[in-house]
């Protein structure tokens, strides 16, 4: 991929999608409904650290469910991949990301760390004997992936913390089935705080590029997680990264991705680049409409789909 080809793909993706009006901001979290729906930025970071941007890169939104990826990576690094299979699960649920039925049906098993039940369980597994230590470790891993200090969006955190009874109920149900490994209320609170970390498109692209580069941040050159942890993390992203539409995303784009209801979306093209886009209006599944279109356009233009194999 040449510099010119990447810039051309980014320019076309931005131009072709900047006027898309489909979708609407998440409104079940009051602060997200108030975010400017016209924010639209794309960033791509290659595995050798080259950064390409287009559109609004200065505006920050809360990371929301994209954060689940990096907490997952941390617990795989700490506990190993088998522990995640045994204590949480790695299967797509086929149900909504905050489904209680998904927990009840299999008594807390057969879920994954990228839906709310599994993500709260993942927070409970982070090393630390108290919530402050767990939060410090979660914040550290996000900062290392991003290559900079990420701040908590306090209005979003307060808004979510005041209205997270469903997640608290999920955490208590997991506890009842022996699938919660720390205090459920405190685990839910730390999870809520992690979702409120503020990011822009460049931050997200660097985080994605760190995964694309086998766990080494291509900008800071810091090894954040191992290649084996990266492989396990990408596998869960491929099967469960875009909520109910994960299969459709992989079918169209081919690159493991993860979305958040704040409007962010990342995709990882292993060995090549990480790409991210931010655009708050979401589709019915909770994925950014513009971000999906823009990233798909760039990946396809650069022929970066890892399943697109040219015969020899």
UniProtKB/TrEMBL annotation:
Gene3D superfamilies: DD-peptidase/beta-lactamase superfamily. GO terms for molecular function: glutaminase activity. Keywords: Acetylation, Hydrolase. NCBIfam families: Gln_ase (TIGR03814), PRK12356.1 (NF009020). Substrate binds at residues 65, 116, 160, 167, 191, 243, 261. Its EC number is 3.5.1.2. This is Glutaminase. It comes from Taibaiella soli. It comes from the Bacteria. Homotetramer. One of its GO terms (biological process) is glutamate biosynthetic process. InterPro entries: Beta-lactam/transpept-like, Glutaminase. It catalyses: L-glutamine + H2O = L-glutamate + NH4(+). Belongs to the glutaminase family. The keyword Transcription regulation does not apply. Pfam families: Glutaminase. The lineage of its organism: Bacteria, Pseudomonadati, Bacteroidota, Chitinophagia, Chitinophagales. SUPFAM superfamilies: beta-lactamase/transpeptidase-like.
